[in-house]
Design brief:
The chain is α/β, with parallel strands linked by helices. It has two domains: about 1-235, Rossmann fold (3-Layer(aba) Sandwich), CATH 3.40.50; about 250-340, Alpha-Beta Plaits, CATH 3.30.70. The protein has twelve helices and 14 strands. The protein has a six-stranded mixed sheet, sandwiched between helices. The chain has a four-stranded antiparallel sheet with strand order 2-1-4-5, covered by helices on one side. The longest helix is centred in the middle third of the chain and has 18 residues, at about 175-190. It binds adenosine-5'-triphosphate. The site of adenosine-5'-triphosphate (ATP) has 13 residues, from strand 2 and helix 1.
């Protein structure tokens, strides 16, 4: 549905050139929530602004529903932009207008009649959970409520795509989760495609189906959220994943828990999707005469299912330990034998 090919943006200043976005290619499916994560300065904001041409690309193409956005003249671009909603970190509301008037604004610009505007705005107010606040001004609203107005306004012209530029970065953790839940429910209800720019791995974990990791203008990794979380390939993705769930990727200090029994192996088990719900340990103990000492573990939910990691020490007869590991592996749970326990 969205095809981004070889997209680049070079900013030329007096003394230097900055490649803010460097040859980025991404395909996004209809109804997908696609996350783009990167540290400050990675080029995320520039990238998202290139999609609706708030920023003009230096090179490359953005095609949405077969329309090449990059080649449109300004008149056609304006029309096409009505199908691309956008929300911002600092909400960008009109402070002299009420909630109702803010949401009605894009409809006024699109030339929608007063009675239709009223109907549509009421529908949107209901959708984002702001009933009763129609006549409030932005200054009278909390951050979460302001972003709900931003979302309603972005949806006014029934867009095909919603661009979210750090939409939860100014909110506290609880309000962030409320807004993320709202975005998921809108995505499901309207089958709306959402592109989410963020520096928070929690946002990706909670709502995205796929993710691209940006570093110095380039996409250094992209894939299903579960895959990137379980097996991050790039240095940047590894850093992000580790921040979110340090336990899973940090085996330092494990030596404090192992028995140092010569007849034991320390292994790391990776559970993905439905495997995370299995009672694997009791299953193994019913089948094999071994002891299992749980060292550390965690489980994290994502939009695409849960993933978890468990470090265990398996003790017993070496032959039986090997059989146990083979059995766990054959049941679909990935096993990594840890040779040197830190
Ligand atoms: N208008 C501009 N003129 C010159 N350089 C710019 C301009 N906008 C962005 N840049 C540079 O492009 C690079 C990418 O910036 P961008 O804001 O896209 O990154 P970001 O990942 O969104 O970071 P942040 O989250 O801090 O905004 C940075 O080096 C920035 O200084």
């Amino acid at each position: 549905m969205i095809s981004i090919k070889g997209l680049s943006k070079v900013f030329k200043t007096k003394h230097q050139e900055v490649k803010a976005v460097d040859d980025v290619s991404i395909n996004i499916d209809k109804g997908e929530i696609f996350g783009v994560i990167g540290y400050s300065g990675a080029g995320k904001s520039t990238f998202i602004r290139l999609i609706n041409r708030l920023e003009e690309p230096t090179n490359g193409d953005v095609t949405i529903n077969q329309t090449n956005i990059t080649s449109l003249n300004i008149g056609k671009l304006r029309k096409e932009r009505q199908k691309i909603g956008m929300i911002f970190q600092h909400f960008n509301l009109l402070w002299s207008r009420t909630v109702f008037e803010n949401i009605a604004f894009p409809l006024e610009i699109a030339g929608v009649s007063k009675s239709e505007r009223k109907e549509k705005v009421s529908e949107l107010i209901e959708l984002v959970g702001l009933k009763g606040r129609e006549n409030s001004y932005p200054s009278q609203l909390s951050g979460g409520q302001k972003q709900r107005v931003g979302i309603a306004r972005a949806l006014a012209n029934d867009p095909d795509v919603l661009l979210c530029d750090e939409a939860t970065s100014a909110l506290d953790p609880e309000t962030t989760d409320d807004i993320l839940d709202l975005l998921v429910s809108i995505n499901k209800k309207l089958n709306l495609t959402i592109i989410m720019i963020t520096h928070e791995m929690h946002v990706i974990q909670k709502i995205c189906h796929r993710v691209a990791v940006m570093d110095q203008g380039k996409v250094v990794e992209q894939g299903d959220v579960l895959d990137v979380f379980v097996k991050p390939q790039s240095k940047t993705a590894k850093r992000f994943v580790q921040q979110l769930s340090p336990l899973e990727h940090n085996q330092e200090g494990l030596h404090r828990f192992v028995t140092n029994d010569s007849n034991s192996e320390v292994v790391k088990l990776h559970f993905i999707g439905n495997d995370a719900k299995r009672a694997l340990i009791s299953d193994v103990l019913r089948k094999y005469v071994v002891d299992i000492n749980i060292l550390q573990g965690s489980i994290s939910p994502t939009q695409e299912g849960a993933y978890g990691t468990l470090y265990v020490e398996i003790s017993g007869d070496q032959k039986v330990i090997t059989e146990t590991i083979n059995y766990i592996q054959s049941s679909g749970v990935e096993v990594e034998v840890i040779q040197d326990v830190d």
